[in-house]
Amino acid sequence: MKKIFTPAKKKSILIVDDDQLATQIYREKLEGQGFKVEVTRDFDSTLQALKKGVVGLVMLDLCLPGINVVELIKNIRSDSATQSLPIIAFSNPYLINLTRAAVEAGATKFVAKVDNTPEQIIELVGELGGNATFRVGVSGAIEGLEANQEKAASKLSINRPEILAKLRASYQNFTRTEREDLRRVALLQMHRQLRLLAGGASALAFQQIAQMSTALEGLLIELYTEPVKVTPSVVRTIAHSIETMALLVDRVANSQDQVAASPKILVMDDEVISREIVCSALGKAGLHAKSLDDPLAAQRLLEQEPFDLIFLDIEMPGQTGLELCVKIRGMESNCATPIVFVTSHSDFGSRAQSTLSGGNDFIAKPFLLVELAVKALTWLFKESPQPLPTASMQISLPAEAGGHKSQLAAGHGALELHHGSPAR
After folding, report:
1. How far apart are CA 276 and CA 269, in angstroms?
2. What pLDDT sits at residue 191?
């Protein structure tokens, strides 16, 4: 009997991600390099695709909403047929424990999606032995990002008004309940809508949207994992970050360029551990800060140099942060620089005092590192933040000040901020 030659099936790359725009970009670029690509978006369909036996490499996002991707990796490694299958895990730089768990489960390589272009991912695929019709090289073999940025921008969140409305509604649901299970449902909804809103931002090189959404995603996942970490400060930070996301997506939709710059940030705190924690949190967002422990030295520096963002401790010897803030508002160099107070006091009196001294915002100790990163990006990406006038105001407030509404939410009017939120 004559033997019939049957060519071996070409192995494919399996992408496990719900970011439709990003996966479309990856698929187009990978297929352009001779790869065969398949996309799945849930646990079961991924396992079914792997059972076909033609997958040569897996790329998966660790932050898929509602899916335990670490368990998925363990499941892949438990099958003898896929024990040695290369797995590239897209990680979130704020979620170190999740990344560590993925590596322990068997991920071959992890990369931060926010820090890697599709070209770099394709190079990594080639390094890990992806099966293509020709070698993937660094030198000019891969075409650049979308040439028509206006067309690319139109792909980003085409349904953004509807998605934003759902995102804000989920936030309101989150603030209006004390039940942990309902909070987690609302957090999961916000996470899904955030990914829809910011989908493809990294692949399309919309850096500010990618940075903001990555940080906010990290915060939502951390709170979903440990709802006990929800505080009034966190609730407030989420509200402000949602409105900043809306602003950033609107800028891209209106073809406004995003200017990449290295912001100048000052951290002023007399406690070394507090300063290090704040600087570490900023480092998670790729931000670098100058830190000082002497308010008088900070005052002299601020009189000479403009900064893009200032973090001030309230309680400091010699001169309080509130007193320093009043002086900063009188300086030509930093009269409009956003000032965020870092304080252990979360009562209304402290919030009102920070407002009247000219502060733009506050964050309560103890804070999550990712919360402070979100806070910093929120103020850095805002347009021309305006401080409240301070010239004729007194720092001290009467006891009955608690009956007034805080003005710190000014400029974020799209969301109602619940200072008396049950989320504690």
Report:
1. 10
2. 97
